[in-house]
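Folds vary. Our protein:
___
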Amino acid sequence: MMLTQEDDKQESHFHIAVSCIAQSLKAHIINRSNDEIAICFFNTREKKNLQDLNGVYVYNVPERECIDRPTARLIKDFDLIEDSFIKDIGSQNGIVSDSRENSLYSALWVAQALLRKGSSKTADKRIFLFTNEDDPFGSMRISVKEDMTRTTLQRAKDAQDLGISIELLPLSQHDKQFNISLFYKDLIGLNSDELTEFMPSVGQNQNIMFTAAELSQVKKISTGHLRLLGFKPLSCLKDYHNMKPSTFLYPSDKEVIGSTRAFIALHRSMIQLGRFAVAFYGGTTPPRLVALIAQLHSKPGVAAPRASDEQLKKASALMRRLELKDFSVSQFANPALQRHYAILQAIALDEDELRETKDETLPDEEGMKRPGVVKAIEEFKQSIYGDDSGEESDSGAKDKSRKRKAGVADAGNYDYIELANTGKLKDLTVVELKTYLTANNLPVGGKKEVLINRILTHIGTKT
């Protein structure tokens, strides 16, 4: 029974199912507002359906009306269903062993009828089945169990033949895992080996098999990787034509004898005539047009730093710690859109408070504090900066402290209050004015007039 709580700390399966449906309704009304949805409870005390079948209660579709799109009123009412469910609808404790009534069979029948009456005949039609009972007919006698299993599976097959897919959402017990192989494996049409089904060929009812070499040959666009098409002046080549980072092309006499000599002749001619080559680049990669530009060799102005093997090892270890496994941008919701949706939801449902939205694009501060990450960062810093990295930071702080103390000492050479009262601050230099500001932890940016006004404000004599 989904209404039963296994202990005080855990939520009932009914609460979990209702919460999932409520969240799905709120998402559909924004992202897929044209979807038509019906909520159907089975194994209930009360009944409400067009077929007048016992144990099935259609929540949001009035009798003799079609399935419709979710509304704000439906979402608000469904959020409160847990408070009124036992009183208004009720639940039975499983399928009664001595009864011939099959509420699961009836629920599939009602759901199939609702989907067939939908406004769109070509839309995708799905049944999401929530249950925590992996063997609905387990308490029946053998003959009754076999009969109910057969009729229920046939009803599910009829629905699937009409283009209605059935998706199971199992809810496991606290002390027992949901065993899908007892009944629902056959209902939703899972094969035991979970092999992919292939469409047989029309001629001999055989699958078409390709070898790796044949597939490679089919995917190959050209026999060569690079084919020269012609030449154009360098003035025709614009910066915005560059779509990807450039690569370098080198000759190799090991692959083609004489390629170096031909390459040098082509390179010199292109530089002298101021032209670039247009070529086709393909093979097993997606084909595209490329520009070949002759470039004179020049020594780099700055020597590139070289990392040691130890530094590379520590950097790789750090990257492994920070790497996001199976990353996809779809895993992170747009925070601006989520807040926008929260505002729309609050307006539509007359809610007093906005739903809290979490910005998942911000850095994971908690994750950066994990011992493994902290250790990898420290080892990387140690390999790059050595033992002096911490001392440099300390020395920098000490230098700033010395400068501040020197500023305080220099500020004592003048009576700034007297100079402010007599209007003689303008006679001091900018450096002398900044000495007072530094000694009193005030900003030192701006022109001389700004510095004087800042000192007067601090002293309290500015009118």
